[in-house]
Amino acid sequence: MRNTQTKEIAFEKSIETVLLATGYKTIVSSSYDKDKAIFPEITLAFIQDTQPKTWEKLQTILGDNTGNQILYDLTKWIELHGILATLRHGFKCYGKQLQLAYFKPSHSMNEEVLERYRKNIFGITRQLYYSNRNQNSVDVVLSVNGIPLVTLELKNQLSHQNITHAKKQYCNDRDPRELLFEFKKRTLVHFAVDTDLVEMTTRLAKEATYFLPFNRGNEGGSGNPVDLEGLSYKTAYLWKEVLQKDSLMDILGKFIHLQVEERITDEGRKIKKETMIFPRYHQLQAVRSMIEAALKDDVGTNYLIEHSAGSGKSNTIAWVAHRLSSLHKVDNTRLFDSVVVITDRVVLDRQLQDTIYQFEHKKGVVLKIDKDSKQLAEALENGVPIIITTLQKFPFVTEQLLKLAEERGEETTGLLKTKNYAILVDEAHSSQSGETATDLKEVLGGETLAKEAQEKAQEEEADSLVALYRNMAKRGQQKNISFFAFTATPKHKTIKLFATNGEPLHKYTMRQAIEEGFILDVLENYTSYATFYKLVKASEDDPKVERKKAARALGRFMRLHPHNIAQKTEVMVEHFYQSTRHKIGRKAKAMVVTGSRLEAVRYKQSFDDIIKTKGYNIKSLVAFSGEVKDDKLPDVLYTEVEMNNGIKEKDLPEHFATPQYSILLVADKYQTGFDQPLLHTMYVDKRLSGIQAVQTLSRLNRTHPLKEDTFVLDFVNDREEIQAAFKTYYEGAVLGYEADPANLYRIQQELLKADIFTQEDIDKFTTIYFKPKEKQSNKDHEDMNHVLDIQVEKFRFFLKEQDEEAELWRGKVIGYKNLYGFLSQIIPYQDSDLEKLFIFLRHLSNKLPKRNSGGAYNFDDTIRLEYYRLQKISEGSISLKTPEQYPLDGPTDVATGMVREEYTPISRIVDVVNERFGTDFTQSDQYFFDQIIESAIENDDIVQAAQSNPQDKFTLMFKNVLQQLFVERIDQNEDIFARYMEEKDFNKTVTELLAKEAFNKINKLHNE
Description:
Elements: H1 8-21, E1 25-26, H2 40-50, H3 52-62, H4 66-81, H5 83-89, E2 91-93, E3 96-98, H6 111-118, E4 122-129, E5 137-144, E6 147-154, H7 163-173, E7 189-193, E8 198-201, E9 212-213, H8 237-242, H9 245-254, E10 257-264, E11 270-277, H10 281-296, E12 302-307, H11 313-325, E13 338-342, H12 346-360, E14 366-368, H13 373-382, E15 386-389, H14 397-407, E16 421-425, H15 435-459, H16 466-475, E17 481-487, H17 492-498, E18 506-508, H18 510-515, E19 526-537, E20 544-546, H19 547-559, H20 562-578, H21 583-586, E21 589-594, H22 597-614, E22 620-623, E23 627-630, E24 633-639, H23 640-643, H24 652-656, E25 663-666, E26 679-685, H25 690-697, E27 711-714, H26 719-730, H27 743-753, H28 759-769, H29 779-801, H30 803-823, H31 832-847, E28 863-874, E29 903-905, H32 906-912, H33 928-936, H34 940-948, H35 951-968, H36 974-982, H37 984-1007
Parallel strand pairs: 1-4, 6-7, 12-17, 12-18, 13-15, 13-16, 14-15, 16-17, 19-27, 21-25, 21-26, 22-25, 26-27
Antiparallel strand pairs: 2-3, 4-5, 5-6, 7-8, 8-9, 10-11, 19-28, 20-29, 23-24
Helix pairs in contact: 4-5, 10-11, 11-12, 13-14, 15-16, 19-32, 20-22, 25-26, 27-30, 28-29, 28-31, 29-30, 30-31, 33-37, 35-37, 36-37
């Protein structure tokens, strides 16, 4: 007897059983009209049942031909407008409007529409024979009101087939010219399914068909978990959740949309690319989670959505913005009066408008604020459903509201009527926890926030300080504002402000995005170079110099040295010409990340010279802000536009996208938010760490049909530091050290003890600063400056007499500002003295004199380069599949103050700062390690790192200094040096032992 339990038919039957039990009905293949590609009897039955009056009117005109005419007009309408628009907005037959489906209304007030929605007919057809040309059949077809919309090809590992066979079947055996599969005409999505995985496509195109994973994710990676609750297939969520009746109608009505992109081909032709967007599983889950949470929680709750690059964040934001703008509570009142999208991305506004128009079919739902703060004020006043703006416009809204009222001849306080707002933050980061973000909360807090401040002032018997209490109130969470913050790389502040108990509402990790193929792993091909060189004194003089300052000057001397730049340029140009330019169908591009604007200028000149000398057909562009002065040519000023032969700054991305340009050299530009899929290689000559390393290197991760890999060539950074930076976000960020609120009071007292200012000084300043508007005058500015000038003079004397202590005090000022600015948004402080001190210090710190440390050293005539070697030290993948975790620590009150460096002979300084360079030390071997420890603990940066970090993080920072110290002593013990540089295990062991010893010594000295 044949065992059918292991066959595909059993899998098919299992799916059918679930769907039939939840409201689907079986529709046999024989009732399918192969010419019209619909189930005509079902379609006509639905129209007649839900729209009987219109049917009767048509029947009066058409008689027995009514059904045929409706089907004829329907198919013609779909041919013209597409199936999606026809489903949503209906069609016309003899001038009469007919609906092809009914969608669930956003409120329950219209019982008639709800009743019609319940009459939608959901059909499942197994083995649909769809063609007049062959006997091919699709495993499962799902239809709504007789219109086939979803297909499933099922494969079963127990019968030796899997999802790959299903995809091949779609590519090889499903002709996209068949009406059932024709793009936009009938079926909208096709699922390849086995018992472990699901993939989908919205357009069949033979071998060019592009499938996307549609999986839940498994422990931070791709795939699906075992179904421990339902005890079913790993992929059962597809038919038990996604394809259930209400879910499917929700997707058809509020998710699927046609994305149209215009682009210019290499030949200069403008072409349109149409893509039917069906939500990926995590997008569907994220949007629904946000809607569910918004309905369950009170307005005034914050949510964090931690979605990696490649998650399709633009579409997720568009979907949730539309849903939130029409979301109704149980009592049928709208939950939010307006949805405000905070973004700097130009492309997002057009995408939002186009997407939402397809759902609403009307203009004016979305308004992009592209003029000024007056336009934003009007939009907020008028309650525009969805407003797209930047954060920077909010500080000026109150002033614009007053002007608008004045123009209308009305009296106003410049406050908005308190309404409910949903704020969607695109790429939330630390700017959302700064002063501009509190201005947003103040503006949208409106009349209620002002009233609460008034009541608090009266309660404290401080009516003249209403503005102070309003300032305090705006820092906290507002009861009428819910934040939905999206980011791939949250900081500690972001998590604390927007997450619930340190956890995001929804997470889609970098690991899952890489494993599912939505972004590339930029650390897969990572090559590191080290620079070994020796600087020697070129003059007879040996002046005394400040150690740390001289170190910086020597580092700059080396980075800008013509030989250094020329050698590195040679490596980069040759690598690009021999390797990179052949990638991505010979369209690959590269980015050079430089350490300063002047370095970018020098590299641009060097690139152009070497490319010209070699006769290579390569062109480069450079990006930096402002004007750059080269001390070698004091009369010459360089600008980006001039060095790029007149290309305007805003036009640079468009020009770089053309085949004409291949290499982009940057200095603090285009390292975040720059999407160029043809970017294949990055040459790094700048120190990168933490979130900056992730954001910069991630410029390479965008996919392209011909892009198989990426490449990084790094002249500066330690591989383990880069690994640690990426590991922080690879499987989702984790909170580390928490900021201690009690520290605010401790620092407050320590600042007051220095006798630079008193509480009376603070009160005097803030009384003027927070004066009611009607009492303000031009003299206020003068009076505030006078108050501060007294403290400034006290600090100047302090700096002159005790410079080190004065710098430490300045550090505490910075520490207090950072800590209060963060904690005041999380903890509702009621102490007005803390707010007063914050405001006072914000203004005082701007006027405090800097310590005079003399001019920068210039060693051009006193130092020369004696030895230089550029050497490849490692290549290959930097693995992220390691168990280490790197939590995100909160802000502390530790702030650095400048400490006076001892003066040392310049000849010794040269040896000390030759970062990884050989020297001529002659101390005996037995003191080799002891002296390395002693040198390390004299380094201020190392001391501070040991005092403010756990040992594991300290070890990472220590490693770079340690390598430098080894290189400085290369001649003392060549055997140890060689082993340290070449043997990974030896290097690791020595590093950990010396780091532990240094860490313990520093903390012991500090505690004493």
